[in-house]
Specification:
Bound molecules: pyridoxal-5'-phosphate
Number of domains: 2
Order of helices and strands: HHEHHHEHEHEHEHEEEHHHEHEEEH
Number of strands: 12
Helix content: 40-55%
CATH architecture of the largest domain: 3-Layer(aba) Sandwich
Distance between the termini: 56 Å
Mean pLDDT: 96
Shape: globular
Strand content: 5-15%
CATH superfamily of the largest domain: Type I PLP-dependent aspartate aminotransferase-like (Major domain)
């Protein structure tokens, strides 16, 4: 017999993955240049020069050392460098002993949730949200409760959050810059959230942990300020990843940071070590821990994404689409031209435009366009977007 839950999960791939698979088939049929695949958040800018330089240098070092196991929580020098960089960049006193190296943000989240949650606990998700959160929370034996961030800005609705928090609330996941909206939660929202969580934690006599899901931290435009959450709220656990910042999604490297000011910080970290152990997430890839030590905090060259962002936003809004102006990440969240976003995506498909319906992000009526593609693809796709809107308006 198999786990029926895991069987069901394995048989049902995510909406994004399904479109991506369709795209591969369609490209084989009509040629890759004729399919406008905007489905997947796979970085399209090269990794910073220092990444390859460091890989080359490391390959000249002792290979037994290089490829061997590190401590379960990760190489101490790497963790120390990360802590120093955090202090320098964000003015926050991180503790290397409370940093756990992981295989990207997905592992950071699953490990943290497993460490924090008990049956009956609830985790608040802010819609629109990354669809895998639900899978991760349920796998940790807890439930999600969704609180919508209101259009058109998709900022926090503190009143709705206050109504949603009760004695079962154990954590809230905040993702900024956001997938799928590209929005960055402003400092004012973060201050409001921190005050609310402090008040509710006291009221229910248990800390509510703020999980800061930060794979897009380095991907911001126009000098937008992204508050560093541990500076605002003590019970914060940061789930960081180098997937997007260094264009290394396939290498699976990131970390978990427990704020030293968190309630029972040492025990929280011990539970994270336990969760990592129980799920086999020990000793993140050694080679890429070494890369993280040298490349942590390098600012990626965002000019390519920025160009795509402006081109796509300006072109689509001039045509008559309405969209959230993205301040970060590499997604454009566009209002569907009919209430059923899945039906809209099917129509878009007829024009070879592959978009993701907002429903799986908990935001029906919208579609996500991942613009981490070549500028050429965007330019070539614009007539198709024009024909699509004409279908609705003629
Ligand atoms: N969180 C969000 C919001 C994401 O968009 C992604 C990936 O797209 C992840 C987590 C997982 O990132 P990683 O590839 O580092 O596991």
């Amino acid at each position: 017999m198999l786990s029926q839950e895991m069987l069901a999960l394995g048989k049902k791939s995510s909406a994004i993955r399904e479109i991506f698979e369709y795209s591969k088939k369609r490209k084989a049929q009509i040629g890759a240049e004729n399919v406008y695949d905007f489905s997947l958040g796979n970085p399209s800018i090269p990794a910073p020069r220092q990444v390859n330089e460091e890989i080359r240098r490391l390959l000249t070092c002792d290979s037994v050392d290089l490829h061997g196991y590190t401590s379960a929580a990760g190489d101490m020098q790497t963790r120390q460098t990360i802590a120093e960089n955090i202090a320098r960049r964000f003015g926050f006193s991180a503790d290397a002993g409370l940093i756990y190296m992981t295989c990207g943000a997905a592992a950071s989240l699953t490990v943290s949730l497993k460490a924090l949650l008990q049956p009956g606990d609830e985790v608040l998700l802010l819609a629109p949200y990354f669809p895998e959160y639900k899978v991760f929370v349920e796998n940790a034996g807890a439930r999600v409760r969704v609180v919508a961030c209101p259009e058109p800005r998709f900022g926090l609705d503190l009143q709705a959050l206050e109504n949603a928090i009760d004695q079962n609330t154990r954590a809230i996941i905040l993702n900024s810059p956001n997938n799928p909206t590209g929005a960055v939660f402003p400092e004012e929202d973060i201050r409001g959230l921190a005050a609310l969580l402090t008040q509710k934690s006291a009221q229910y006599h248990r800390p509510i942990t703020l999980l800061a899901d930060e794979p897009y931290r380095e991907l911001v435009y126009d000098n937008t300020f992204v508050p560093y959450l541990p500076n605002y709220y003590d019970d914060t656990v940061v789930c960081y990843s180098y997937s997007k910042a260094l264009s290394l999604p396939g290498e699976r490297i990131g970390y978990i940071l427990v704020s030293p000011k968190a309630t029972a910080a040492a025990d929280t970290f011990a539970a994270i070590c336990g969760a990592g152990r129980s799920m086999g997430y020990v000793c993140a890839p050694s080679l890429f821990q070494q890369i993280a030590k040298v490349c942590d905090g390098i600012a990626p060259d965002l000019s390519g994404y920025d160009k795509n962002r402006r081109l796509l936003y300006d072109s689509l809004t001039q045509m008559g689409y309405s969209a959230v102006y993205p301040q970060g990440a590499f997604y454009l969240f566009v209002k569907s031209l009919e209430p059923d976003a899945a039906a809209f995506c099917e129509k878009a498909k007829q024009h070879e435009l592959l978009l993701v319906p907002g429903d799986s992000f908990g935001a029906p009526g919208y579609v996500r366009i991942a613009y981490c593609v070549s500028t050429h693809q965007i330019q070539r796709s614009l007539p198709a977007f024009q024909k699509l809107i004409e279908e609705y308006h003629l």
